[in-house]
Amino acid sequence: MNWITNYVRPRINSIFSRREVPDNLWSKCDECGTMLFHRELTANLNVCTQCGHHMAIGPRERFEALFDGGVFVEVDVPEPLADPLHFRDQKKYPDRMKAAQKKTGEKEAMLVAEGEIGRTPIVAAAQDFDFMGGSMGMYVGNAIIAAAERAVKRKRPLILFAAAGGARMQEGILSLMQMPRTTVAVQMLKEAGLPYIVVLTHPTTGGVTASYAMLGDVQISEPNALICFAGPRVIEQTIREKLPDGFQRAEYLLDHGMLDRVTPRTELRAELITITRMLLGLPPAVAGDLPAPETVSAPQVTKADVAVDKKAPGGK
User: Are 57 and 45 in contact (CB under 8 A)?
Assistant: First the structure.
């Protein structure tokens, strides 16, 4: 036995037998720095198992956790003009859209779906902050209107998950016009006597906060979410004063009467089921996770729906 046998040969064997470890097995918590195994993180809905920090989650993953059995049907949204202003900054607007679509796998910043939670039929809409900061453009306005119209037509509550950096500057005034458009859509729900529940996630800012995100019958937020019109840095620079700790965070807004609840993501589904059934005057749902409905398909068109369509402008 010598140094060649004891050291060199094992060293050579370890080099040639070394296996590559995939980079996506672990995620680092932005808050506490803990390395989290991706399966545990996914099972906990992207909430850190050590400190409870809520990381970003996409609309599709959120809906899979929300609906019974993770089953839902997407609602069609009318497509707006692709590049109405022919806007260009460092990149052309269509190029930015293609990059965002490739990054997220979604065609736009909002997903609309319908299904059941606790055997209660609902319509849901969720913004994707990874898609150009969840910015509110014409598509987002069309999506909220489509969600409201579907909810009214099917007599279902609407639950909206907001996450946005504000209006989409590449669409200019057309983006700002979505504020009154979505406000009218919310009014449609109120006139129909249907619940409109908003879940504010981190961050919800700008024109989104000044319109549909703060008009819910019930306002819920995830913990420590930033909710504001102008951000704290802009306000500090404007008034030249130091803001209170936690200013514009969910817990601060709850203490000052702007929110009804601050609920962890892992408890949100059960709370939404309870609130929705209370607002609809239904008895409490059966406790625990429910399996997927026996049959899930595209919504069926009834004779009543056809009659409503005929009465609408342009109906035959």
Answer: yes
